[in-house]
Amino acid sequence: MYLSGQAVNASYLQLNTSGNVGLVMNGANVGINMTNPTTALQVNGVVKATSFSGGGAAAAWVTFDGTSGSILASYNVSSVTRNGTGDYTVFFATPMPDTNYIYVGSTNGDGNSGGSVPRWHITSYSTATYLAGSFRLVAGYQHESNWAFVDSTKVNVVFFR
What we know:
Layout: E1 2-3, E2 6-7, E3 12-17, E4 20-26, E5 29-32, E6 41-43, E7 58-64, E8 71-75, E9 77-84, E10 87-92, E11 102-107, E12 119-124, E13 134-143, E14 146-149, E15 155-160
Parallel strand pairs: 5-6
Antiparallel strand pairs: 1-2, 3-4, 4-5, 7-8, 7-15, 9-10, 10-13, 11-15, 12-13, 13-14
């Protein structure tokens, strides 16, 4: 490692800015705004970035108007097609590496539910809907033994890989 043109041979390096600890390298661990990092990267403060990737990070997410398919907010989603009432296809801007991803979804449940409290669902259209470039889903409710597709004004789906 080189610092100001001089070789440094140490397992601990601390860079200070205005009397505060800015960056610490402690063996293989790096800490920002802290003195003793215990993991590969540890930050004391808010982390702001344009994106994250890796285990646990969402590969894509979208909030859209189910009455039209118009995207309200998204990450890695290029478009949503409304195929019919409560039936949508979400297209990924960057395709998934394969079809081994999962999804979690919700709606604001404001469609016509036919009376007493229903159970709202978002589910895959069929097992063939898991494609690397898109995912087809249906949204609706189940009331007693009846299932109905419903357009909700807000449909939310997160995809993990």
